Amino acid sequence: MRTRSAIVGLLAVVVVSTSACDPLDTPSAVAPPAGDAAASVTTLDGLTIAGWAPMTGYSRDRFHHWDPQGAGCDTRDVVLKRDGLGVEVGANCAIAKGSWISAYDGATVTDPQSLDVDHMVPLANAWRTGAASWSDDQREAFANDLTRPQLLAVTATSNRSKGDQDPSEWKPPRRDYWCTYARDWITVKAYWKLSVTAAEKAALADMLGTCT
After folding, report:
1. Which residues, 6+ apart, have CB-to-CB distance to 21 below 8 Å?
2. Which of 111, 73, 110 lies closest to 93 in space, CA to CA?
3. Alpha helices per DSSP H over the chain
4. What pTM does this model have?
5. Residues of the chain with pLDDT under 70
6. Exposure check for the chain: N or C terminus, fewer CB within 10 A?
7. Smallest Cα–Cα separation from 69: which of 37, 28, 106?
């Protein structure tokens, strides 16, 4: 099975776990794993199906990011270091250069300024599927979650094409990434107890059908 580590060639170091509602304060350089395909099918079946909640009160500022992660790095810096090869870091954790393979479109990137760190489950989607009722600390933890497969360095073009859309509205151009994408999306939704729409669930099930 193709995994995120196989796609982006991650550096293996110690994973630091944190609780869902506590601010993260230590960098992690290992991409968090998603469940396997069979487990993801079971997990998907257990998600609550609901319609969209209103966007009333939503703002990206309600999901504070990027948090300091120690050694002068913030969450974005940690993801860029984790997801790249040969990453060179300057003063104050400035990402000077490296090489990244964008999982969504397969593009190879050497300029870190051409990358976005994507929230697998977009912040607006989270708001409309449960996060509106969270505390500010919970929303901050969600937006900086390095423990689940919620954050991924991808090309700015692919990330902005995705926007706030769910899998029924947008899928990565690389079809061979659909299995991993669906598994990661389900892992995040399940951990954070977010609902899915009927169309979203159907699209995720179809994408899991591409797993080998």
Report:
1. 135, 137, 138, 141
2. 73
3. 4-8, 37-46, 75-83, 123-128, 136-143, 156-162, 178-191, 198-208
4. 0.83
5. 1-35
6. C
7. 28
